[in-house]
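Translate sequence into structure tokens.
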Amino acid sequence: MPDETANTDDTGPDCRDDQPGPWDWRQTMKLLPRDNKIEKMDNLGWPETSEDVKLKVERGEITPEEAEQKAKESGWPPFARKPKFFEPSAPGIVLWTPEMLLGWIGNRTLKAVYRHYKPFYQNIFVWVQNQYIYLLEEKKTIVWFHPKKAAGNHRDGHDLIELVATSYPDGFLDFDGRPGEFVDLEKEMPLLKSHLSGGLISALGHPSLLYSANLRITPEQWMMGEFRIDPVLGGVLKGPGYEFTNVQFFPSGVLAAYKPDRSQDPGRLEYRETDAWMSSMPKQTEYKAVIVQCLRNAFPEGMPRIYPVKERLKIIKTILGEANTHRWFKNMDENDADSVETKYQSFGRAIDRILKDNLISYPGSKPKKLREAVREGPTAAP
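Result follows.
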């Protein structure tokens, strides 16, 4: 018997489907070139969607500016999303990654640092020029890989791209959608190493010992060690008998060594307020004393007021290391937002209690004079 499912029609393949899905006409239209044979969807009287407008920009039929104006008139969210450079959060950047450090060395501007700082590039979309051009006289889109000036009267196409994390030495997209690149670490290293080994720039790193807290790297260790940037381990300093990973730098020394652009305000890059440590630690449980000592080593001048709070907790968690934070983050499911939020809330409450007992003043706690009086004894209280 003949196979009834076999295709016996020579005109084409059998397109039958036991579970047919809906026909995506709009997606099909995206795959077809727009020329004189295919009328624009607008002529059919269908309402124009944001995807239609974005497609026009991709093909060069309209500019990104025209698309943004259309979004505004239609009540849509903007296509491109730019970071908000708000001053209160800038002091929260207490530690700089190697990428942030190189961004500053190469450009000496705030934006050059922020591009490599997750809270600023996360959920940011930019228009990026693509390989399409729209010929204004012929009114059609073509692919063009030659110099754009040779294409005659045309309009460039643009794709809407989301910014992602950067990693030295790879290139990246900047906030304006243009390609960015890092300065050469090998060329910058002699001067940078002199600042680090001389003590002008300070840094923290995670030692190779399992479950150890992050430690300040000494000038002698910088002098004897070799520094590199690893895509997984971050900054790595390796010397005779020691190795630090996830090396991060304090910006105050960087700003002193590499002067900022005069058009920028260098103070916006440093934390402005700190809460001083008490002259001696109060009697407390061992794990609390270890936490306080780690934080005092990292911030000997006082505990900086870091905002937003979630970023503050992440920085403190990084400084303390896994051994000193395990009690709060054990069994945390990184893919469960509720689990992560619950763990960080518990950690935050504990850190607040610890800091209030070890700082002369702390936001939301008793005034400085009263706290000093309480520490001195009841007879000294006003």
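Note: The two ends are 106 Å apart (CA to CA).
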